Every structure is written in structure tokens, then in C-alpha cells.
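Intended use. Records like the one below are meant for learning the mapping from a protein sequence to its folded structure. Do not use them to infer anything beyond what is encoded.
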Amino acid sequence: MSISTHMVAMRDGIRLATDVHLPDGAGPFPVIMERTPYGRHETSRSEITAANRTPATRAELAAYFTTHGYAVVYQDTRGRYGSDGRFVKYLSDGEDGYDACNWLRDQSWCDGRICTMGLSYAAHTQAALGCLDPPGLIAQVLDCGGFASSWKSGIRQSGAFELKQATWAFKNAQVSPEAQADPVLRAALAAEDICEWFARMPWKPGHSPLRHHPDYEAYLFDQWTHGADDGFWRQLGIWTEGWHDRYSQAACVHMSSWWDPYPLTATSNYIGLKRADRGPQRLILGPWTHGDRSNHCFGDVEFGTDAPLDSWAGDWRAYRLRFFDHVVRGAPLDEPAVRIFIMGGGSGRRDEAGHLLHGGRWITAADWPPPGIDVVPFHLHGDGRLDRTVPATGAAPLSYDFNPARPVPTIGGAMSSLDPVAFAGSWNQVEGPDFYGCKPPYLPLASRSDVLVFQTEPLREPVQVVGPIEAELWVSTDGPDTDFTAKLIDVHPPSADYPCGYAMNLTDGILRLRYAEDSARPRLRRPGELVRIRITLFPTANVFMPGHRIRLDISSSNFPKFDVNPNTGEAEGVARRRRIAVNTVFADAARPSKLLLPLLPL
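Structure written out for the chain above:
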């Protein structure tokens, strides 16, 4: 194998650092390209296997593919590591990726066929260039990323701002070329305590932990202050769904997981590209946190030895090689369209490491959502019941005070890059010293006065939920704006290991009320105005076992996963005031709030 480095010129003259790993022999070769902001020489923590916990270096991964006859290309994105230019997150990757493909096709060692791969941001770069349908692109493996709509999930989530963007900006400013070249800048960033800064929100431009690096602060506030789902969110690189009908015909694998920030992105792109009759589409949905596809315990929950992708794929490198060989060389690929890990079925005991044994298993399906699901409404009742019966006529609504100075703390969930402030995965929904914003006496979240809890009776038969989840609520607030959150929970019954039971979070969602009717045209509310809303929770798959309960928690905050609505109606990202909101959920025959669950027969 030979290795060379090139500074590849983009259409505007900016040059991007590019490493080329070539197989032995005359060539030409098909190419596998990864475009990354994390350093083309840097080892990715996710390149492990269940058998080998030491991550493969990029050179080792390249050697694996070059041994099988592929040229491998790693490129630093604009303004990162060895590349020239100014970094603006996500927005230059479409045209730069297209230009990189054109450069590849001009090289004598490239046979004109290009595959792409990469995790997270390196999946976003793939989707961005795929939107422009570059010549030669024939296969993509989009691992946990690719923004179907970054307003719906990934940057904002139905209006609320995902604060992982703030922690990501802070951490990556510290390794930016500017910080590496300037010891004063590097020291200033290192001196900031990001956890303390989360206690001082809302931030102000020029008065945030990113004030030392104005470029990173500027792009963060651009995202934070653009609230409406308008042209800003239609930009190339953060809005793949707008390009589905003209996307590349490349064969695609979309992969995400239940504790990752991108299962809605992966499923939306799979559905949209398939409907648009683009190239062949495949979908993999596991039980992992972001990029941790070879692990089996996430948060405080153990999902069993079948949970790693390695249990059926061999390992991730082997899967990608089989897929690329199938597309490039016509090799057989005995893979279903969709693979889904369904959580649940474990003993519910505590294992030797102290984790809940929840278990799970893989299934295959012909499509997503899986054929055969039945979307069933589970109605909310004023006495806390959650069942299939319609609520009574005239049933009293449920109100609570939402104080933005005391938000509901995030205890796990689907996210990434929020460390050290918050961590992804599944935990018992009980406050504790390890979770940001929690204070003694560390009681269950369900005990809070601003959390409405609705749950079924203990189940007599197993209930298998697989697919998209929505909560349809009738609500009001006494002010101009607020948020509503929804969280789906599998309540394990009391046992010797868990005498108080175990409330295991599965998925959650949020909606900023000003966007309830039209995401592009926000409207503030009249006090007490009745609004019918739909909260999109991330898709999930779980079997609720006999004796368990299905639970839905409704509230108005989930911090620090999302920014906190001040309830004042001020513009996004610039609020300076806060007010306590009286928020109301209706649950009567005329205004039946419900949880819509996709049930799949066992």
C-alpha cells in the first residue's frame, strides 16, 4: 500500500487536505472516501469490534480495504485540521464533497466508481454531497447522521434547540486550527468550565464560553437564533429531505440506534429516498448509543450479547466490505432491507455489574415502518390511567406550573456530544448526583409537580411496540409560549433487585408551542387558547412484558438536552426574562389526548 497527501482545490480555490491510500498493483481502483472534521489522521473511537476493543487507526482501516482492492481517501473538511478555509458547521460540505468526487474521477488510479462512509458528521458530509448527485457516486454507508431535516431533529427538535450543539462547538473550538496555532486562545478555552456555563444560560454573543473563538460562537448563535423552519433550515447540508427526489442513485445503508440522536433522520431518509425511487435503500436500527455499535450496555441497562452489530454482521468492517463488494462487484449480499433490534424480554434482574437486564433480539423486516403494525391510541385520563378507552365527557383538565428556573433534568435519552453535561442511554427515571440539575433528596421524576404521569395497569400479555411514536395532545398555556415534552417509559415491576421498580426511559420528544400549527410561521398564543398538538417522539422498538406498565410522562422541559423555554414569547436564543407558565393538558371526550403506539404482533 502507498500513501500520499494532496491539497485538493475546491471551486473557490480553498484547498482541502486529502490522504490517498492505494492498493498494490497498477489499478485503477474503486474508491472509498470519508470526509471528516475530526482529523484525517485521528483514530475514531467507534472503529472497534466486539472482539477487539482497541480502535483501528485510519491507516489500519485503510489497509483493510486496500487489501481488498479499494483505494481509500480521507479528507479534512473545510477549516479543520490540515484544510484551508473558514469552518462553518455543515454548510460547505455539499459543494466541497461534489468537488472532491470530481477530483477523484480525474485521478489515473480511480476507476470512476466512488463509495462513501463515515459516522456522525462524516455521515452528514455524505448526505450533503449525495444531494448534488456527483458523478461516480455508487454507494454510501450513512452511519448515524445525514440530517433529513435538522429543524425536526439534529440541531433543533420541533423548535427546541438541541444543546449538544453548544457542547460540540466548545469542545471542537479547542482542537480547531486556530486554537492549535495560538496558545493564548487554547488556554482561554481550556480555562472555561462548560458545566458551570450551562447553569448561566441563556448565553449572550460575546459573553459565552465560546467568546474566545468568534467563528465558532457565530455559527452556534446562527443556529440558536433561527427559530422558524424557514429558508435558513433549507440550506444544503442540513436538509436532505428537500433533495430526496434528485438525490444520487447510489445504494445506501442508513444506520442509527435507539440512544443515538439520528434514528428519525435515518428512518426519514430511508423512507424518502425509497419513495423517490432513488437507489436501493437499507436500514439498520440497533440499541446503541452514538457510534457504539459493538457494545451491549447503554446507560444503566444491559441489552444482552445479541445487542452488538457483530452478533450478526461479523463486525462493522466486514459488513461495509460486503456491501461495497455487492455494489461495486456484484457480489451476493444476503441482507434484508431492514434490521431492527427490539428491546425487552430480559429477566429484569440486576447483573453482576449492577445493570438492569432488559434484553432484546434482532428481527428483519421488508420495510420501515414494519409491515403489519397497527397504530393504536392509548388515551390519557385525569386519574393517571393510560388505556384504550375514550375518556369521559366533561373530565377535568390537568394543570401544572412550569418554572423555567427549575427545569426537569435530563436522565438519559437519545443524544450525543453533550458530555460532560449529560450522557445518552437508558436509566431509571430517578434523580441522582450523577445527573446535571438534580438535587437532594433525589426522588423519582414522577414525583415532581410539573410532570404528569399516565400509565397502564400491569400488562397481562406482552405488548410489542415497533415504529414511529407520537403523542397527540390538547393543551393550553396562560402565556404567549411554552414547550410540551413527552417521554415513553417501560415500568418494570418491583423485584428483589429493584424493590421500587424501575422506570426505564425508551424515547422522548418535545414541541415548542409557537410552532404547533406551522413550523415556518410561529404564532404566539392567547392566554388559555386551546391548541391541538402532535409531539414526535423518536422511533423505538420494545416489548413490554407481562407485569410491566406502559407509561407516558408529559411536562415542559428536558434540560440540558434541550434549551429551556422562558415562557415569555421572546425571540429564540435571545431571551432575558423568565416567567412561570400554567400549562394544561385536556383529557376528556371532546378533547381526547392520546399516545399513538405502533403495535406489532409477536
